[in-house]
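Structure tokens please, single chain.
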Amino acid sequence: MLDALRKRLRSEKGFTLIELLVVMIILAILMAVAIPSYLSFRDRANKSAAGANLRAAIPSVEAYFSDTGSYTSMTPAGLQASYDQSIDTANLFVKSAGATTYCVWTQSPNDIDKVAYKDGPNGKITIATGGSAGVGC
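Here you go.
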């Protein structure tokens, strides 16, 4: 009888508490490595999206200047209607526009804290963080 009980106890399958703890520790280490990597990737993707939105709009801005001789009264909706229907007007903003200069900025559709802006026709495209407060022009 005692032998039958021992056999039955030995034959039971399952994980010990130590084995479960080891697996949980390994999972915690993997998560500690994976989460920061994912967040960094997402940040870079949102900055790239903001830059791409702006780069897509700049040819329309310059075409507007070629047609009118000035940047004044330029609006994202007007650029979309007259020059490029694919411009993302929901995330494109004209901060200031004068006769010979402008400041156009855009934000990432996925993260409004990531912005890109171009300060004038000779300015370079700058990608920043900080929403509209991060726009330097």
